UniProtKB/TrEMBL annotation:
<feature type="binding site">
    <location>
        <position position="66"/>
    </location>
    <ligand>
        <name>[4Fe-4S] cluster</name>
    </ligand>
</feature>
<keyword id="KW-0408">Iron</keyword>
<feature type="binding site">
    <location>
        <position position="162"/>
    </location>
    <ligand>
        <name>S-adenosyl-L-methionine</name>
    </ligand>
</feature>
<keyword id="KW-0479">Metal-binding</keyword>
<keyword id="KW-0949">S-adenosyl-L-methionine</keyword>
<dbReference type="InterPro" id="IPR007197">
    <property type="entry name" value="rSAM"/>
</dbReference>
<dbReference type="InterPro" id="IPR034422">
    <property type="entry name" value="HydE/PylB-like"/>
</dbReference>
<dbReference type="GO" id="GO:0044272">
    <property type="term" value="P:sulfur compound biosynthetic process"/>
</dbReference>
<dbReference type="InterPro" id="IPR058240">
    <property type="entry name" value="rSAM_sf"/>
</dbReference>
<feature type="binding site">
    <location>
        <position position="62"/>
    </location>
    <ligand>
        <name>[4Fe-4S] cluster</name>
    </ligand>
</feature>
<dbReference type="GO" id="GO:0042364">
    <property type="term" value="P:water-soluble vitamin biosynthetic process"/>
</dbReference>
<keyword id="KW-0004">4Fe-4S</keyword>
<protein>
    <submittedName>
        <fullName>[FeFe] hydrogenase H-cluster radical SAM maturase HydE</fullName>
    </submittedName>
</protein>
<dbReference type="InterPro" id="IPR024021">
    <property type="entry name" value="FeFe-hyd_HydE_rSAM"/>
</dbReference>
<dbReference type="InterPro" id="IPR013785">
    <property type="entry name" value="Aldolase_TIM"/>
</dbReference>
<feature type="binding site">
    <location>
        <position position="69"/>
    </location>
    <ligand>
        <name>[4Fe-4S] cluster</name>
    </ligand>
</feature>
<feature type="domain" description="Radical SAM core">
    <location>
        <begin position="48"/>
        <end position="270"/>
    </location>
</feature>
Length: 347
């Protein structure tokens, strides 16, 4: 198994059969070796730095009806909200004062936020905080919309593909959504010039070893600047309420594999990972992650943005909590830095 890990580090990919063997590996010593190699590759590119992103969940309205998502349009128990432009700018300012140099605007696919409204928000942040990176995570839009947002000053766009297997995609999404369209959006984002992120859930209903292998092959081919992956966690008000969650162990394994495939990728330790394991953030870092996204959404709204049950919402929303996060990272040998944390292409 060490030979397989070494080959992955050297060649940045594996034959499908060997990648399957690695995904199936449960040997503790082999997995520790995998994590160690991922850490080494991460530190070659980014040192001991951990980049923090100010996450602002600005709307939980969504026109889509994805079967796994707690803010799906059919969930009439969800308490809906939208932040105003003033609220969003205030969150960005607060984050900047705390040392955040990236703001992430995340929300459902909310028709209220037209190109005009969303571009105005992006321009407002850019005018107020000219040196920050602006990341958007607002789903599928037209290529014209993406171009307008890029021109307004957005730098990065995260659009998780969720699964690269068409049959599996159909199990997770309503009929009006297609994998082909999702992939087309990702390709358009890269072509426009966004630092682009894809990603997938670990342990989603219907996921098999073959669909995971498809995910890894797609991710390698796309060569994104960011990858967001975390465990599936069910929500009580969705058709998947009774499904088991993904596992921390498989998530960590996949984080390490993605790091070895894409040595310079920006790779978060996600909130979902921290929700399943109080030490999930630390474990993610030690498996090759280098980004964490504390939640700066105002408390009254934060509890309503429930994509899954049990979401960790404590975040690092104030100076004391951020200092606690700094201490936690120092305890495992890493350091939070005041930096945009841009993707660093190979020299």
């Amino acid at each position: 198994m060490r030979e397989i890990v070494d080959r992955l580090r050297q060649e940045r990919n594996l034959p499908r059969a060997q990648m399957r063997d690695l995904l199936l590996c449960e040997d503790a010593a082999a997995l520790e070796y995998l994590y160690a190699q991922a850490r080494a590759v991460r530190e070659e590119a980014y040192g001991k730095d951990v980049y923090i992103r100010a996450l602002v969940e600005f709307t939980n309205y969504c026109k889509n009806d994805c079967l796994y998502c707690g803010i799906r349009r059919s969930n009439h128990r969800a308490q809906r909200y939208r932040l105003s432009q003033e609220d969003i700018l205030a969150c960005a300012q607060k984050g900047y004062a705390l040392g955040f140099r990236t703001v992430v605007l995340q929300g459902g696919e909310d028709p209220h936020f037209t190109d005009a409204r969303l571009c105005a928000i992006v321009r407002g942040i850019r005018a107020l905080l000219p040196d920050v990176a602006i990341t958007l995570s607002v789903g599928e839009r037209t290529e014209e919309s993406y171009r307008a947002l890029f021109a307004a000053g957005a730098n990065r766009y995260l659009l998780r593909h969720e699964t690269a297997n068409a049959a599996h995609y159909a199990q997770l999404h309503p009929a009006e959504l297609s994998l082909e369209h999702r992939m087309g959006c990702l390709k358009a984002l890269k072509a426009i010039g966004f630092q682009t992120g894809c990603g997938f859930m670990v342990g989603s209903p219907g996921q098999t070893m073959e669909t995971l292998l498809d995910d890894l092959a797609f991710t390698a081919a796309l060569n994104p600047e960011m990858v967001g992956l975390g465990p599936f966690i069910p929500h009580a008000d969705t058709p998947f309420a009774a499904q088991p969650p993904g596992t921390v162990e498989q998530t960590l394994k996949l984080l390490s594999i993605v790091r070895l495939m894409l040595p310079r990728v920006l790779l978060p330790a996600t909130t979902a990972l921290a929700t399943l394991d109080p030490m999930g953030c630390e474990k993610g870092m030690l498996a090759g992650a280098n980004v964490v996204m504390p939640n700066l959404t105002p408390p009254g709204a934060r509890e309503k943005y429930q994509l899954y049950d049990g979401k960790s919402v404590s975040g690092s929303e104030d100076a004391d909590a951020l200092e606690e996060l700094r201490a936690r990272m120092r305890a495992i040998g890493y350091q939070i830095v005041t930096d945009r944390g841009d993707y660093r292409p190979a020299p």
